[in-house]
Amino acid sequence: MKKITLLLLLFCSIGLIGQEKLKIEIDNPEPRVGQSVTFSIDMDFLNDYFKNKLGKNIEFSNSSLFAMHSKSFERVIVFKKAKKHKIGPFNFEFNGTKYFTDIIEVNVLPELPIERGVWVRLTEFEGEKYIILEQLIENESNFKEHEDGGFSHTIGGVLPKGKEFAELHEELTDGIELSNYSSSSHTLTSKDSKQMEVGFSYSIKKYRIEFKDNFDGSYTLSKKDFEHLPEKIDLEKIELKNK
């Protein structure tokens, strides 16, 4: 049995000689249907090829296929179905070298209902744990009539004055810290809304969880861990464990 295992490992190793592995990365660890996800593969080897062939006096500019300055092939994708999607593996050959990628699984969730609320969830992606905080706040109209008979307004309305999106404290407890991985906000309206109707301001904040070496046990999120959290909000139990 040991001999068979060693032979299999040997054949696998021989198969990988002359090949290089590339890593697939995405910027949204658990998107919803309709949300954009930037998908990228490190293409630094292609930069090196052009530099060697064209010399130091050549200046690169960004192209629609890949950004030379970012050293990666990038595409923005939008998932239309809620399920686990597999991306990869990709295999190709360039300048005599074979390249291959790993496989990643992207868990896509259903769209949020277009209504006031706060949604907090814990997710894990490629060994990292994240807290994702989403919120919808009902907008108000900024419709204004002008002296010349015209008018102006923002489609979908604007965030009411004094309203702020909820956010998490960076230090939850001794041994657990959060880093703001990314955040964004925009206006959402229902598909059948009319031109003058107001919609909602949507915010999404993604926090990467960092456990210190001295942390042992678990920690449950509570309302005291948030700023600007609406009073009448029921949070689902989220327990953080360093495992």
Look at the helices and sheets and give the structural class: mainly beta
Element-level helix/strand string: HEEEHEEEEEEEEEEEEEEEEE
> Can you give the helix content as a percent range?
10-25%
What is the spatial order of strands in the main beta sheet?
Answer: 10-11-17-16-15
Strand proportion: 35-45%
- Global mean pLDDT: 84
Task: Tell me what the structure shows.
This protein is mainly beta and 243 residues long. The chain contains 2 helices and 20 strands. Strands 10-11-17-16-15 form a 5-stranded antiparallel sheet, with no helix packed on it. A 4-stranded antiparallel sheet has the order 2-3-5-4, with no helix packed on it. Strand 15 and strand 16 form a beta hairpin. The two termini are 33 Å apart. 13% of the residues are buried. The N terminus is likely disordered.
Note the topology.
Blueprint: H1 2-16, E1 19-22, E2 24-26, E3 36-42, H2 44-54, E4 66-67, E5 72-78, E6 84-87, E7 91-94, E8 97-101, E9 104-107, E10 117-125, E11 128-138, E12 144-145, E13 151-152, E14 167-168, E15 171-173, E16 176-188, E17 200-211, E18 218-220, E19 226-227, E20 239-241
What would the keywords be for this entry?
5-stranded antiparallel beta sheet, mainly beta, 11% helix, single chain, 243 residues, 4-stranded antiparallel beta sheet, disordered N terminus
In brief:
This protein has 243 residues and is mostly beta strands.
